[in-house]
Amino acid sequence: MSRTNTILCALLLLGTLAFANPLQAMWSVAELREHDHKSAAMQGTPSQVLAGVTQPLGAAQCANGQAEVGGIAFDCSDVDLLAFVPVAALGQESYGSAERRIEGSDVWGWTSPSTGDEYVLMGKTNATAFFRIVTDDATGLPTLENLGELPNPATSFSVWKDIKVRGNHAYIVAEASAHGMQVFDLTTLDGLDEAPDRRHTAAAHYRDASNTSHNIVINPDTDWAYIVGGTSGNTVNDVLCGRGGLHFVDITDPAAPASAGCSALDLYVHDAQCVTYHGPDTRFTGRELCFNAAEQWVSVVDVTDKNAPVRLGVFPYTRSSYVHQGWLTEDHRFFLLGDETDEQRFGFNTRTMIFDFEDLTSPQLPVEYFGPTTAIDHNMYTRDGLLYQSNYAAGLRILDTEGLYDGGTLSEIAHFDVFPDHDNASFVGTWSNYPYFEDGVVAVNAYDGLFLLQVDATLLANEAFTPGE
Q1: Where is the signal peptide, in residue numbers (predicted)?
Q2: Burial of 468 by CB count in 10 Å (0-12 exposed, 13-18 middle, 19+ buried)?
Q3: Of 452, 449, 444, 453, nearest to 89 (Cα)?
Q4: pLDDT grade, residue 232 (50/70/90)?
Q5: What is the dihedral of CA 415, 419, 420, 421, to 10 degrees?
Q6: Quick check: helix, strand or coil at residue 421?
Q7: Mean pLDDT (the chain, rounded)
Q8: What is the DSSP letter of 112?
Q9: How many CB atoms lie within 10 A of CB 17?
């Protein structure tokens, strides 16, 4: 038997043994992934309340629990609406013989180092749209200026698109055939006038280890990107890399991304956060670690040596359904996790799993936090001691994490519901948010369009804190 065949057989055997592990969730990988292969129509059922909105909406202050504009009332608390760009204003997309409704997905942001201008990068099924945050002359409030879009490669079309930024470049992937990873030079946006029909071009199109990908992860402190949930189109490579494990990409030169191998320690990684570790477990200070949401468990992998990644541990939990996405507190002690289908499967309110990683190889059993609605959780991020959750039908929820250090709990302090119809456990409403602009401005992307929100400054001043101090 050749060395290659020996490796393949060994990996397949390891995979078989892994799925027999009684600590793992009861569902098979095929069953676990089923939710991610629904039709776009099922995933992004439009809001009936927002269905008639075809032009952008302006600002609306949150008062008495509602922000009202254009005859629509959004449920809210301490979060104002600055602007809304509906998908209906972004056109339709030809897909085969049918016209399909464009839908929003991931969102990220960038602040120009030369001009100080802030930009929103909106993922759509057919492109990535770029918006500059400008001041509205009439209201004096921030609003969105459409600068055009970067189309998907060829005719690829997928609601599963994700974006991250390193330096002055955006890195964009999607679960669409031949999409690969697009690299876009964000400095080309500076000085442009508004032009929604403008079509931008990519600075690079990387496909060495990425034909289709579910997500892109970037360590903010290094020039390493990690493509997850992807396939390269090469069967041998896909098996060796776990058909969706971590793919390592050197982005030192954004115009020429270079493959640096992969890890099959987790056969499929749905999402991850990769950091240069500075948390309480000083054994790993300065190491590059990835905290993986790997469908059936959370895993922590040391990827400092790309040729020999090491898994520090696999951490399942009770009532697991689909381990989707999570984010660390800024002191790297707690990992806050969302399970995407547990609300549907078990019938409880929005659940956030709280992993205390004071010891990275032997954490405490996770604590459960249940939110006030039955909505499904999706993407969440931390900033200044606060957790910004995009919870599908319930919209943006902002939670205080200070209680984690005194009793191990979270508490909701503000919200803005971008899906007025209901808060049920269904795949509608918001996909993700970007809370890293200055002055409490948060971009929230939803299937129905892009929201620009403003969190109350007094609330932020009173509630924000530095974890670990």
Answers
A1: 1-20
A2: middle
A3: 449
A4: low
A5: -140
A6: coil
A7: 88
A8: -
A9: 9
